Each structure stands twice: as structure tokens, then as C-alpha cells.
Amino acid sequence: MGYRLRDLLAAYARTLRLVSLSLVTIAAMMAIGYTTRYSGVDATLGLAFAATGVLYPLFGTMLGWLGVALTGSDTSSNVLFGSLQRITAEQLDLSPTLMAAANSSGGVMGKMIDAQSIVVASTATRWYGHEGEILRYVFVHSVALALLVGLLVFLQAYVDPFASMVIR
Length: 168
Fold this sequence. Notes:
- The chain is mainly alpha-helical.
- It contains 7 helices and no strands.
- Helix 5 runs antiparallel to helix 7.
- It is globular and about 60 Å long.
- The relative contact order is 0.12.
């Protein structure tokens, strides 16, 4: 590339300054996830979600949707809610693998309404200042698709032949 070592280090330092706030945000989200796990908050919430009973596959999917909509990351949502999903699944005699997958699958539907995705969409299309319109348009689609995923998870949890496809 023709860079001298000094120029390469300067470019690296500029890049780190540019993404420093994003790196701190990601680290903070991961810290919250591990703090909730080690403090027992996710166990408490998992036991509370167990009260939803038969409807938990739907709620678990929507929890993944909410996690990604708020954090902007499926990984962060899985760190935040993965242990909670496992605990609740075990309480309800559901497959923890199914509920972990439900968290991720619901999260994918939440990705279309997270702030970063909307900003990227408005920037890519040069439709600046219309982020609210984009959110209003895709919100209903996001919820509808998450509910459809929740319905599929419900079927996989309780109804044959769907249930026979789930690893226990």
C-alpha cells in the first residue's frame, strides 16, 4: 500500500478515535449482560417469565425482538437474554436450544427497527431527516414478522410434526 509505519499508526489512531464511542457502547452492553447474569437478575426474570406458561415461546421470541431493537445487535441481545431464555425454558420443560434460537430469530426481526439500521438506511438512500418515517413504515412489518416467528416457535415447542424437529 506504500504506507510508512508512522502513517499506518496515524491512520490506526484516527480510526480508533472515530470508533471509540461505539467500542465503549458495545463494551457497556456486554458488561450489562454479564452483570445481570452474575447478579442473578436474569434468573429472577427467567422465573417470572415462566409464569407466562404455554405462551412463553411467543414471549421469548418477542424478547429477542426487543433486545435487538434496543441494542442494535443480535449478539448483545443473546448476551443479555440468553441465560434468561435457558432458565425459563428449563422451568417450562421446553428445549433451551429452541428458546435460544427463538431469541436470535426474533432478534433478526427487531434489526429492521433499531436506530443504527434506520440511520444507515436513510444515509444509504440519501433520505436524510426521514428516519421517523422509515421507522413508522417498517415498525408494523417488524412486529408482524416477529409474531410469525413466535408462532413458528410455538408450533415447534408443542405441535407435532414441528416439535419432532427440535433438539432437546
